[in-house]
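Please check this record.
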Amino acid sequence: KNWAVLVAGSNGWPNYRHHA
């Protein structure tokens, strides 16, 4: 789940949900 935190912190929460 480290990648999720990195993406969410880099692009934002919306990006994390889109990736998931």
Summary: The mean pLDDT is 65. Helices lie at 2-10, 13-19.
